Task: inverse folding
């Protein structure tokens, strides 16, 4: 378990004051800022994963806390829908993702072309918020689909969890990669340093995964991740190798080049096509999940590359940034 982070506004201040105490009813409060909203949602969702030190496990399903969370979720999803209108169809979005655009403006492109070792460490610190629990949010979906789509989804998840080999679990590979680059590989080690743009995509996965009403959106988010992973992973391997990464420092993304190329085919044809054929009413929600994940991924990319182009840290606290301290001895 990790320590509770510091508040970033009125909502997280209220939540953090209440969580360690024996208080069972929290008022539903509207978020006062994006940073505040995303950290508060992260805190609520993390109770469904590994939890926090000094926070009772009973908080996970406390009715008052769930009401508090629901108000924030409503604000989050309303904003997403307003930003995304109109949402393109599933077919149109997937067709766009499959186009080979070559050069781009994202973090993987920057790292490959002009990246520096401190930026690699920052990128891994950002991504650790999800990758140290990779596949866990999507596992919530498994009991909510049935038939052929479920069988394919379980096969995908089996690979994410190492195919029965603990040393091949993707979260373990990511932790090994962090250590190889001199980073703290502890679960949640960079939550304090993670800005809203980093927390939001992870919160989106948890939001979709924990709500059966957003089953289609959870599949859409997962599909986007798998479709875009292989090309991005290839660029990152090239970048990390150029910047001195050893085998352990590249293995996670090296594995994803081939694995996610296969996963992309499986989730498109074995999950989405099958699911929408059996339950056509899910198509709009799948489309929403694809689009929402894309919007938040773009916001994250713009924040990171925008900071790096000015020579600034993309993390919230420069003193936490791998840019401002030497790597640990490996």
Result:
């Amino acid at each position: 378990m990790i320590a509770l982070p510091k508040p970033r506004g009125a909502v997280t201040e209220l939540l953090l004051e209440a969580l360690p105490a024996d208080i069972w009813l929290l008022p539903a409060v509207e978020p006062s800022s994006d940073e505040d909203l995303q950290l508060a949602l992260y805190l609520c969702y993390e109770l469904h994963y590994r939890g926090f030190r000094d926070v009772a496990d009973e908080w996970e399903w406390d009715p008052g806390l769930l009401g508090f969370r629901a108000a924030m979720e409503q604000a989050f999803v309303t904003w997403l829908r307003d930003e995304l209108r109109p949402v393109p169809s599933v077919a149109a979005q997937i067709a766009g993702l499959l186009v080979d655009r070559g050069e781009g403006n994202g973090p993987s492109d920057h790292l490959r072309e002009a990246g520096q070792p401190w930026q690699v460490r920052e990128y891994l610190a950002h991504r650790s918020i999800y990758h140290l629990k990779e596949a866990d949010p999507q596992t919530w979906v498994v009991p909510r689909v049935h038939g052929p789509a479920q069988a394919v989804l379980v096969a995908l998840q089996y690979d994410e969890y190492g195919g029965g080999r603990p040393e091949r679990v993707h979260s373990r590979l990511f932790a090994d990669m962090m250590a190889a680059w001199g980073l703290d590989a502890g679960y949640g080690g960079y939550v304090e340093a993670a800005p809203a743009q980093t927390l939001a995509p992870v919160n989106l996965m948890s939001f979709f995964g924990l709500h059966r009403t957003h089953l289609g959106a959870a599949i859409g988010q997962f599909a986007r991740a798998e479709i875009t992973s292989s090309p991005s992973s290839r660029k990152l391997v090239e970048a990390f190798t150029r910047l001195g990464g050893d085998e352990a420092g590249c293995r996670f993304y090296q594995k994803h080049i081939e694995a996610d190329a296969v996963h992309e085919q499986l989730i498109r044809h074995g999950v989405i096509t099958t699911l929408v054929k059996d339950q056509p009413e899910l198509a709009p929600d799948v489309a929403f999940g694809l689009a929402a994940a894309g919007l938040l991924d773009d916001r994250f990319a713009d924040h990171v590359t925008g900071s790096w182009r000015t020579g600034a840290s993309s993390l919230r606290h420069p003193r936490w940034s791998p840019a401002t301290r030497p790597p640990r001895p490996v």
In short: The chain has a mean pLDDT of 89. The chain has two domains: 10-84, 90-324.
